[in-house]
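Hey, I'm writing a tutorial for new members on how sequence and structure tokens pair up, and I'd like a real worked example in the thread rather than a made-up one. If someone can provide the structure for the chain below, I'll link this post from the tutorial.
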Amino acid sequence: MNTVRRNALSCRPFLLCVVISGALALGCSTAMAQSVDYDSLLQTAIGQRNAGNMPAAEQTFRQAWEIADNKSEAAYLLALVIAFQDRYEEAITLLDATLIDYPQDTNLLLAKARVRSYQGLLQEAGDLAERILAAQPQNQEARNLTARIALYQRRPAYAKMLLEDVLASSPNDLEALTGLYDAELALGNNEQASTVLARAASVSPTHIDVLSRQGAAAQPGIPMHAWITGFERSRTDGFSSHWNDRFLEYRHRYNLRTEQSLRISHNHRFGEHDTSIESSLLLWQQSSTPLELTLGATPDADFSATRSARAAISTRLSEGNDRIGSTVMSASAQGARYRTGNIARLGFDLEHYLRNTDAWFTLGAGMVRDENKTNIGGWRLGANWQSTANLRVGIGYSEGAETENGITSDTSSTSGYITYRLGTSWQMQLNLSQSRRENSYTRDSTALTLQYRY
């Protein structure tokens, strides 16, 4: 899901000094000096955060937290800045510890809901936001968060309705304005989105949430670079040698809408070696129709495609409602040239996101025109679940045409994967699959992928 998961928060002025009648003059002046220090630190940290300097903001918020008499506000602000830097579990630990002393603090609960939404745990995030709205129907931050969760759930029209309601009473609410910009963009209303962004810029022209959407700055907390490496080993009955495939990929995100990747693969199959190069470009990732373009080539190919091209585009079919989740459709077309001839593929996939859960299903159908100019149809079905903040699992089954060594054959496949997040930058994925080629062999594969983002 290509969505923006961070938003700087507006902050309310905090009452910093309480003068107790009859207090000693020295004690009163000391308390007032401490309050002034806290207020100054808080405002400095908020300015650093809004400018996108999260490490500096974290350091200043920590200083404010140390001298605060009431830890709830400082903990709430500090936790979010930690989360903006992708250290979600550290932020949750701080919030949970503070909630022990302030169990009903609305800001702490909202901060926890935000961090959970960043982690993809939308069910827990939504439940927390709705719980706060039930007690405080006009809580602006909770209303903004509910709209942001709707955007994550691919429901921009619903998010737009919620945000326009917020702006009706608070026309300069920056979070509502940037959220409305994202919603209009996701709906394909580019002109309206530009108008909303201009409104946001007039409210706070140097805020990181405005600058990042203008393309003038990177959104803090979103990794701009990624290195991915993987190894796959396959065993086939009827062949004495194993297949060993390996790759190295670099991804660079230019801004919130554009990303490019370059992959080099070295594969050993059938006793032969092929080295392939592939480059992809992701465009309009925040729009209503994200596009992916891929080109590949294999010099002196033995079993791989000598050259290939692929294009894929997606669009939202339905937002559903409070009981039925949203559905996204993707269409792709691919052409590849092998030593045996040309092969073309056309595919359609549906992703359905279940409302109030962290699960989604995929259903696909496609057609392959093989090297003999024979058309072969196929279908696929998958289920995915974000079971915890760090763990995602999925299973799939497919029947259709698969090309190996330039030969296309009807194949049925069963697969499963486990993705586990290792800290703030590392992620590991394990894939297991079995493919059964008609009137031929069965292949069992194990693949391990490691990703580093920064």
